[in-house]
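Supplementary Note 3. Input sequence used for the single-chain structure prediction.
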Amino acid sequence: MTESKVDVLIIGAGPAGLMCANALAHAKIPVRIIDKRPGDILAGQADGIHARTLEILQSYGLARRLIDESAEIHRAAFYVPGPTGGIERLRRLPAITAPTTARFPFTVTLHQGAIEAIFHDDMRPQGLDIDRPTIPTSIELSEDEAELKDPQAYPVKVVVQHLDRDTDNTEVIRAKFVLGADGAHSWVRKAMDINMEGDMSDFIWGVIDIDPDTDYPDVRNLGVIHSMSGSALMIPREGNLLRLYVQLSDADVLDPETGRLDKARTSPEKVLEMAQKILHPYQMKPIGDIRWWTLYVVGQRVANKYSVRDRIFISGDACHTHSPKAGQGMNASMSDTHNLAWKLAYVLRGWADISLLQTYEFERRKFAVDLINFDRQWASLFSSGKARLNGNDDSLHDMFRKNGQFTSGIGIRYESSTIVQSQYQSCATNLIVGERMMPHVFIRASNAGAVNLHDVLPADTRFKILVFVGNIQDETVAKDIQRLGEELDSPKSFLHRYGHGGSDKVFDVLCISASSKQFVDWSDFPKVLRPHWSKVFLDDDDMHGRVGGGGFATFGINPTSGAIVVVRPDGHVGLVAPTTRPEVVDAYFGSFMTPVAA
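The predicted structure, written as discrete structure tokens, is reproduced below.
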């Protein structure tokens, strides 16, 4: 039996586990990830990535490849029973309902294995690969309070079995933290006696992936279809593929003696046959074989807690399950661990108190509850379409439209906490504290080149300090900027007090001015606001007048007085403050970070 130690052990190499592992690997945190699967997923499984998740992946430099390999969904089409017995189109809507501030105002689809491969390829240069097939067999958490409060201690003992070894196949891993990202039937959740709250519905759905031969006109749009023969959801996939979700009856799939789902009672051909009836008068048949299929019963459940003593965490399907029809599963799962990874890094580096980890459950569980409440309504409304919807019933499409900001992830807002402080919201009325930082195009003062703000907010575990200031050509404004620079450069400033290993290791300061490109140089600003020529931006249009400008108005910031905006490492706005009150920013970081040792 071998023994080892690691800072973070991740159990489960699906999207949630890989998001966390990849983030920690790039942050140089010692991490291991194990999975029971012997190899990659080759087809099927989750496939939809929404607008906010695309922004998150962009912050890791991964969005471009994903978009290039995926199908883009820009439009949704709603169908209802027509007067002749077949279906007719009720209307079309944007796939992400307007208005939206999404940088990528669409959804992309790609099978889960290909999405996981993007993470694999990004992890390997960091020296991290998946240890598989490996399963956990036992987990123990120390009861020693001193050990539990010491982030450098190893209070978790996990015994694992390497299934690909005939001898010496047992290993004892001692970890500082453990993440269970091991799916809806989570071994970690069960081992730690964490309960799921909620219930299973009566709705049963069959899913098939095909290469379609069809005259259905919305085959490359999201299709929400109700007919006299049942309900279906059509999702275009990469290449020419199409995914069909079809509602089934109990008689189709339930064992009459046990009442349990019995996949042997149906087949992909039967699911396809049902889809063909629903689509009448349009034709739909596969080119070649059906690529993949499965059955599922809709369930909406959430774990009663996401962590045990802030040492063992669960994420993704391990802590929330819901129907796949709103396409939230993989998005919610990756967002869980995007939220957790930087917090683990700060605690492990000694930069933040271990209590910071409590905000993971506080922020992500509330989102999961909101998601499940939405999903329960959406799934019920969708599944009951056969009985209620007709050509004049807009209820399903109205719900789709009204919840667009939520389902796209753009409108997700974290509530007030130590890392979400909104007392000075009036300084930037449209940058809602707790929501993600909006994208906008500014130009660099150094060369007038246009830059999307999101491209200078990478997920590199640093807090981004966005200092919005007025026109430095104005004498009064220039004096205020000089005074602010002196205060930020003071030894008492958060930049120095909490700047472990140098302030640029923890904080990335960006200056955004309401000055004109014709009259201002990047070097005109105080040094603390221009640590590099690339860090000074202007709210002006580019040299050809095509993009840029209007940023202060878009964000609701006064172009004379400005504002300080603190963007967390996960891209959410943690604080806005007046430029005349930098001590507010000092107090914000003082509420959860540990000062640099004297």
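The CA atoms of residues 463 and 507 lie 5 Å apart. Confidence is low (pLDDT under 50) at residues 385-392.
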